[in-house]
Design a protein that fits this description.
The structure is a homodimer. Chain A has helices at 79-90, 95-112, 137-149, 181-194, 216-225, 240-250, 254-261, 278-287, 295-300, 308-313, 330-345, 359-375, 406-415, 440-454, and strands at residues 2-11, 14-23, 29-34, 43-44, 49-51, 53-58, 114-121, 152-159, 202-204, 206-208, 232-236, 268-272, 290-293, 317-320, 390-393, 421-426, 429-432. By secondary structure, chain A is of the alpha/beta class. In chain A, the strands form three sheets. In chain A, strands 6, 7, 8, 9, 10, 11, 12, 13 and 14 form a nine-stranded parallel beta sheet that branches. The first copy, chain A, starts with a strand and ends with a helix. Chains A and B meet through helix 1, helix 2, helix 9, helix 11 and helix 13 of A and helix 1, helix 2, helix 9, helix 11 and helix 13 of B.
Chain lengths: 456, 456
């Protein structure tokens, strides 16, 4: 057991001064409460402490393509052209490249305040679609990358079987993603064993790529056979064409189809949900499922704006993800999630409410709870039974100067394009000090080496 | 004369390797061209060189409020509630506070790649509206701040006379802004003399706050009396209410009114222009006037999206500004300017064209030319006769790894939320080295002191 003393901390009950945090030897918070007198046996944390942010949706390898798939093709570009660029990039990406890119990404995520990443992992096989000698090869590489960086990992092996709705044959660029249900369940078993004794270091979860890529019978088979307590993720309703194709196939929109045909509940996370009608917003919120929005990627790909206000009003569970990693900053995601609403409505403080007047705090607390649900681990709050994943802000940083409590959060979210983070801790260990990961330079060197090979 | 050798540079003709840049002793580029052999007498620049970015619209003091005016008021918030918060903040802001806040801001702007700032300066008098002993007091403070940081300054004293369209009486919060035309022209003379012998260190310009705040007769009087070669700036069409009020007053929308009643041409910069009809977009573009868009502020205030694609198609002149400084990064402005278009249209690479396939380069080159027009100084290009204002990128930074030429620009704009800038130079002097301003810590200390006073 180690004791930490924070000058201020955002507890579930609100901002509290002089907080003692007790953390057990496995990295779980045992108690978090104000102390009347200083305890000299405690380690002093050098600033206000807030829960770390869960990154609810990541494809780690796409960090290698971030900012590198922007060129216009003759005639113009869409999401679908970007997907072709992605498939070409994948032709050259093997296990070593995957690991180096993931280590770099996870290091960047930690420095920006993410303490756990939910990896939506569909790159299982070699570039021709041939299984590696160990079918878990790529999963091991992601787990090794998370361990090297020190970030918490929820690893979702992804089921991918078809090229489009109705079981269309996969394209050559998709061969690396494919598994039959038995192969998939084997992967899921393997990932579930990765954490070993250390509860919470690697958490497994189920993922279906999308309704395009997974026939209903395969979803049903996996849901029947898989353990009943794992989180379940799926991409849904990101692009208008996907919605139209889903309607042509089933008569229903993607979120409608899931609400009708799958036992969507608190275990479930639906990624994007950009294109929902009001009845889908309300229906989905009422199931307790989490929506993982990815504002920077959705902006980059031209997906559209999530119905944030209606979903929060319906008490929906919200998380954020950096997805394609065109941004690795949680606060850039949150501020542009909010700004998208402001631009659409002409009003400010849309994510706030009379009861929650600070939009920065409302958004951070919402994605704390939703991120924990998406990750399938008790994180996102400074409370007993939660992982000791936290961020120590630097109140002397110019971004935060003159602010206090909720003011720190609004300033971080709404003006923090230089990061006011002093330290980041995951499972009771400090992994970022003075704003820097201790292995930042070594990780960047390995990443540069790989990128210069990949771009040859 | 000093000679610099860049391993690569973005010249007006395009990316060029091994470029020799010759800079005279006043900080102006004399030549910029490829050299066949290395000249050992040249100073080597440690990375690819691109023109510095002009920040075409700044209210420096608002940096003190960035991220600090986000709380929801009961019943909800709009632009107009934010303006009330701004006026309250101003009650406590004197010359010393103005200077410390501006020094901090300008230091941050330089580190992020802005090399010149166009200061739209309307805070002339003391909190009760009383003239300072020297009516130029606040202007001197801004010039001192720019000199302390080393950023190029275009200083626009702003004419402000009325509380609303039709000459309504100013509100108490506006007393600090007011001048009659003679007082205003005196300020303009004073600012014009600030640069002294050093052409380009401080450039003066004219600004009318808005059609709300300046009666037509006053605009005409200033335009007749002021020197005929200064840039002219005005806020226009930021908010729907402003457009409606302008129509009620004149029968015309703000941009329509300006096109009808003022000699709008290349000297003019219209700030925001969020709410334009297609005929206004085309009409404005054809005058050669510059539109200064401020995407992060327009997002924060819920203004709306600028008609970027139509304006670029009409060959309009574009600049960016950080305005209220909720972001101090030019690339955050540019990427969300582009993402706004993608979200609205469902297409990617909207700012690109078949002739200009890289949206990062297209946007940076557009705001280079437009920024120079807005600033009234030859900047924004690595070419003879331009100020030696440039940014040296760090090609080994993880944001740029594996990229080259336009790929550096797309990666910087579309994935650079950690800054890949190694050096920044203004007028031939290096003002940022290894990504840091040499006085970063001292400037932050002074800023913190002021902010803790202001927030008491």
């Amino acid at each position: 057991m180690t004791r930490y003393l924070a000058p201020a901390a955002l507890l579930p009950a609100g901002w509290t001064d002089d907080v003692l945090l007790e953390v057990d030897d496995h990295g779980w918070i045992r108690s978090a409460a104000a102390v009347a007198t200083e305890r000299h046996a405690a380690v002093r944390l050098p600033g206000p402490v807030v829960p770390g942010v869960v990154n609810g949706h990541s494809h780690a390898f796409q960090r290698g393509l971030a900012g590198g798939a922007e060129l216009r093709s003759p005639g113009g570009d869409t999401f679908w052209g970007w997907r072709e660029a992605l498939y070409r990039f994948l032709d050259r990406l093997g296990p070593d490249e995957m690991e180096a890119v993931a280590v770099q990404l996870y290091t960047e995520l930690l420095e920006q305040g993410y303490t756990r990443v939910v990896e939506f992992h569909y790159l299982h096989h070699d570039p021709r679609g041939v299984r590696y000698a160990d079918p878990m090869e790529m999963s091991h590489r992601l787990a090794a990358a998370a361990a090297a960086a020190g970030i918490g990992l929820t690893l979702l092996p992804v089921l991918y079987q078809a090229g489009d709705f109705g079981g269309a044959r996969p394209a050559p660029g998709q061969l690396r993603f494919l598994n039959d249900c038995d192969g998939y369940l084997g992967l899921l078993d393997g990932v579930s064993a990765l954490g070993g004794e250390a509860r919470g270091s690697v958490q497994a979860g189920i993922a279906f790529h999308s309704l395009r890529a997974v026939p209903p019978s395969a979803m049903d088979e996996v849901m029947r056979a898989a353990p009943p307590d794992l989180p379940v993720h799926i991409h849904a309703a990101e692009q208008p064409r996907e919605v139209r194709d889903c309607q042509a196939w089933s008569g229903l929109r993607p979120v409608e189809w899931l609400l009708h045909h799958q036992p969507v509940d608190r275990r479930w996370s639906l990624v994007h949900c950009t294109h929902m009608r009001p009845h889908e917003v309300g229906g989905l919120a009422s199931t307790g499922a989490t929506v993982v929005v990815c504002p920077s990627t959705e902006g980059n790909l031209g997906d559209g704006l999530f119905a944030l206000e209606a979903f929060l009003d319906a008490e929906g569970s919200l998380a954020i993800g950096s997805d394609s990693h065109v941004s690795t900053s949680p606060v850039e995601e949150l501020r542009w999630l909010e700004y998208g609403q402001r631009l659409a409505t002409g009003r400010r403080a849309v994510a706030a409410s009379d009861r929650h007047p600070s939009p920065g705090r409302r958004l951070l607390e919402a994605v704390g709870a939703g991120g924990a649900a998406a990750a399938g681990v008790e994180v996102g709050a400074l409370a007993p039974g939660h992982q000791a994943d936290w961020v120590v802000l630097d109140p002397s940083h110019p971004v935060l100067a003159g602010r206090r409590n909720d003011g720190w959060l609004d300033a971080w979210v709404f003006s923090g394009n230089q990061s006011p983070i002093r330290e980041v801790w995951t499972r009771g260990r400090r992994v970022v000090a003075e704003g820097r990961h201790p292995h930042r330079d070594a990780h960047a060197r390995a990443f540069r080496r790989v990128m210069s090979q990949l771009m040859k």
